[in-house]
């Protein structure tokens, strides 16, 4: 399959669920950009720069994957960046309700021919969310195997700092 694809989210922080989608999408499309949203109203644990650094470190072996940031309307970024596809991961039926609304709204806003494409999360990661990981680590629980090792270290350090 060809095309310039975008995988977007807050990535606060990136989990192995996100990484699973990135790896699989990078095999399907010519080029994949991981677009980190800079959303001042979301109270993130990690700064924009920290989130980008962690993703870059984790995806450095994937030659066709780039990391970028964006602000504002997703469709503006997609249209101005010349993307052909926006990839989203679906973890459970609960994600579906939200994703279909967003995809249908975006279909009105995206340039003609731009599609939203959905990949089912691998079952071993279907229960993971960034918030749950942060809660477990903050309470000294074991999150090994659920986030990349480098990310786990950064979360542990962050909670020591705070
Ligand atoms: N594996 C693990 N976790 C996953 C996952 C996966 N495959 N897919 C999603 N998640 C989790 C995230 O970790 C996150 O968890 P958290 O809530 O605990 O932090 C949660 O799902 C939500 O994902 P997130 O990346 O925070 O953002 P989102 O799903 O709300 O959407 C954008 C991100 C960028 C697509 C959306 O906010 C957006 O489009 N913003 C721009 C404004 C805009 O254009 N609005 C109109 C849209 S129609």
Distinct compounds present: coenzyme A
Helix content: 40-55%
- CATH class equals Alpha Beta
SSE succession: EHEHEHEHEHH
Named CATH topology? Rossmann fold
Give the total of domains. Answer: 1
How many DSSP-defined strands?
A: 5
What's the end-to-end separation, in Å? 45 Å
Feature tags:
Rossmann fold, 44% helix, globular
Could you explain the architecture of this structure?
The protein has a single domain (4-161), classed as HUPs (Rossmann fold). Helix content is 44%, strand content 19%. It has six helices and five strands. The protein has a five-stranded parallel β-sheet with strand order 3-2-1-4-5, sandwiched between helices. Strand 2, helix 2 (48-58) and strand 3 (65-70) form a beta-alpha-beta unit. The mean pLDDT is 96. Coenzyme A (COA) binds at residues 8-10, 12, 15, 17-18, 21, 37, 73-75, 89, 91, 102, 105-106, 121, 125, 128-131.
